[in-house]
Amino acid sequence: MKEKLRSLWQKLFGDSVRAFGVVSLVFLASMAIAPAKNFFSEWRHYQHGYLSVIRNRSDANTLRRHFQGGIQQIWLPDLGVVDRCTSCHVGLKEPTLTDVAQQPYRKHPVIPHNLDQFGCTICHRGQGAATTLAEAHSSTLAWEQPILPAKFVESSCGQCHRGPLQGTPQLNLGRNLLSRSGCVHCHAVKLPDGSTVKATDDPPSLSHIADKTTREWIYAWLKDPQAYAVTSTMPNFKLGDADARDISAFLIANSTPVPGDNVTLPAKASSDPIAGASLYGESFCASCHAVQNAAGNVVGGDVGPELTRIGSKVKPEWLQAWVQNPRVYDPPTGMPHYRFSDSQVATLTGFLLAKTDSDLLANVHLDAATPEQIAHGKRLVSDYGCGSCHEIAEVKKPENFAPELSRIGSKPITQLIFLQGMQHTLPDYIAGKIKQPRAFAPGLKMPQYTLTPTQIDALTTALLSLNDRSYSLPPSLAVAAPPESDYQPAGKAGKLMTDLACFSCHRINGHGGDMAPDLTWEGSSVQREWLVQFFKNPGTLRPALIRRMPKFNLTDGEVSELTDYIMTVYQSPSVDRDSMPLSGYSQGEIELGKQLFYGKYSCQGCHIVDTKTDKGYIGPTLTQVGSRLTAAWIYQWMKNPQALRPGTIEPNRAMSDEDAQALTAFLISQKGGGKQEAAKK
Amino acid sequence: MNCFASGVLILSVAALAASCSRKPDSTALKPTAFGASIVESSGGKQFGQAGTPLPQPVVVQVNDEPGAAVTGALVEFAAAPGVTFDPVSALTDSSGQATTNVSLGGMAGRYQIAASTLDKTHKKVELKIEEIALGYQQTLGRRLNEQYCDRCHNAESTAERVSNYDNLEVKPHPFTEGETLDKLSDADLTAIITYGGPALNKSALMPAWGNTLKKTDVQALIAYIRAVSDPPSRSASAVFAKD
Fold it and tell me: Which of A100, A131, A153, A441 lies deepest, with the highest CB count within 10 Å?
């Protein structure tokens, strides 16, 4: 063996010439490695593949002309982008490749941004500088930013766009849930602009809970909130029997009565289900409150709590007092003070109390609480952070009860603990945590939510948008959310509007709900007398709507207070309500307007002027529009409806002055008779 | 050379392992009966956002030769990579049906879903169902449609929204009606949406939206109309089939 080696050595390096020759050969070979590696590289393989995909297409010549071989790169120093993805994704910018399903050759779908301005990784994550599939897409030891699964891609829109976008329903839903499920009560979420995400769920105060309900109900609720109300956003803390017993004991012992609550009303709760149902309907309770019907469907609004089993929860005296005036028990509540008569209160309470579920409390038997149980209950209340969401007398609201989530979307995988069988990616981790928070370690406190897979994906999307990049991108790219307004009307009328909870449904000056029309310029829009009548007897303007303005039993004084305020304060600078008369238009003008209405603009597709012929259902009925709206408002509305009410679906027809004038004349002449309106009910 | 050989070996072992690891789900279920045909009960031709679950589950039914429902037949669902099923396979219930929840892949286009069962001779009987994944632009179009167009163009009412279709003297077409809409070029669609019915000599009951919607909105609406067209629009769109 040794012999053989020696002779080989002799052959190769026996003399200096030989040695030089061999060494240079080896050197040459090693020099060739780099180009060879390049030649056999993945991207070159894909580029060849692309050329054969396009070879037989009718537009092959154009495509080949656009094709550039070699490593391609989008370099955007300001954004920290060095993306070589286009080396393999060759057809991204080819609009004609819509029918190509094979990757990496698909054209990029249409988005509102230019690839050359943003590159790829800002939206898709992954390693921009990498030139192999594995390194670009997967997390490796050196790099741990894998490609973002397509279903979460909207999270990247959220890095710059802080408000809702029409094209990102999933992100919008996720952000909404983050506030609405109360996640941010416990987890602080700060945004790059310095603001914090606020909760919108408004959990009730528990300081006076004994006025409202029984310890047995609290116990059942704590054990399983969704057994009481499927739509409840209260999560399940998976409490043992003893813990639920002790927390309920503490909450009852800790509760103090609200003065004036639980008044005994002269009328007893009446049990006339028909009158009750009709008053419930007339008052449009269902606009805000849902009830689960026999088929299991939840029907109604989600502004207030679900009422399916309300009779098994509340004390009758409390319910009477609440229906009479909810502001006694909960001054800032979004529920209107309806000004019901005593007999209406009795009817409605009786109707609601009948909504019971005998199973709910059937197995709840609690002995009188001991001081130890109460003390233990108090400890549990602070251990579980109940005070993060609920105001509870004697219990301080904990600060930073749970980890801050402001940059959760960039959390390094090395810092995460995964469940068995789970893919080791950040989106999987986040979704897993939301889905089964307690599974990750014993003793974790985060409660169990009842969320659908779609909701979990949406929440994951929203959380992924909270990442380092949202901080490092140039602030000039940020698109702010529409500013929150805390507008409050002033004076006596303002107090009245708060009492009636107008803002639960209507928006004024950027504040309030979106269930009912924006009233910011109502004073320019309607005639005073109509408004007075509307308050006294609110019919509906849109027959197709199921949510309507309820009747509030206002006194004449209250009606004129509100009307005066609206007519004076809520005026548009672009509509001078007195600039056009309410009558006196020529017959010719009216006739021309009528022709335009039924012909050129075919308004009858959506509106009814003549109940005998017109059927349109989308817009408000116009049979009495001449007694309702001001002529100046109609005229400006014809010219540009979105200028008066942003977002209205009335199409802007960019009418000439003459057309707008004629239509105004025609519409203002529709004074209606009370009869026509009544006939349609 | 050696290196190459071992590379091939490693690759083939990996490929083998990968193909094995896909199996166990289906072997876990044992069919107790066999059918002769498989038909769609519901859930075909839905559209959803790419990458997200479809709103309704896909339900198929296995029948025997005379056409009676078969209980206990094994149904397997398969599609292009990126599509997920929950569950991937199921035994038919007492009414002969198997149900699965489908999440489409991350790319917009049409996805072919294959639902298969075995007949008595252990031959595979397959049913193809098509689902539509909407990309960014089509999703935007869908939102705009719901906001501005659907109440006239869709005859169906929901609890939240009463259809206006019956109230129109001239009937518009649902956007899924490919036979009508596919006859209109992109330019025609742009014209009628922007300038209203009279632009194509049609009824003025179709309003002009050009001053209300942005150009990109109109494009998004057209992208949506093309995406949901049934039969598929001739403006080509990618089809993702099981390979």
Answer: A153
A539 or B187: which leads in pLDDT: B187
- State pLDDT tens for residues A19-76: 888 888 888 888 777 777 666 788 999 999 999 999 989 999 999 999 999 999 999 9
A11 and A70 housed in the same domain: no
Q: Is A355 helix (H, G, I), strand (E, B) or coil?
A: coil
CB neighbours of A150 closer than 8 A, spacing ≥ 6?
Answer: B50, B51, B82, B105, B106, B107
Count of domains observed in chain B: 2
A605 in contact with B, Cβ within 8 Å: yes
Q: Contact B49/A170, CB-based, under 8 Å?
A: yes
Name the residue among A101, A299, A640 with its Cβ closest to that of B109.
Answer: A101
Q: Check CB contact under 8 Å for A642 and B212.
A: yes
Q: Is A36 touching B (CB cutoff 8 A)?
A: no
Residues A243 and A120 occupy one common structural domain: no
State which residues form the domain around B163: 136-234
Count how many domains chain A has.
6
Peptide bond into A550 cis (omega under 30): no
Is there a contact between A151 and B203 if contact means CB atoms under 8 Å apart?
Answer: no
Helix H or strand E encompassing A86: none
The answer, yes or no, to whether ipTM is higher than 0.90 is no
* CB spacing of A167 vs B166 below 8 angstroms: no
Range of the domain at A516: 491-569
> What is the least distance, in Å, from the CA of A515 to any CA of chain B?
12
Average pLDDT of chain A is: 90
Omega cis (within 30) before A104: yes
Nearest CB among B52, B135, B223 relative to A454 is that of B52
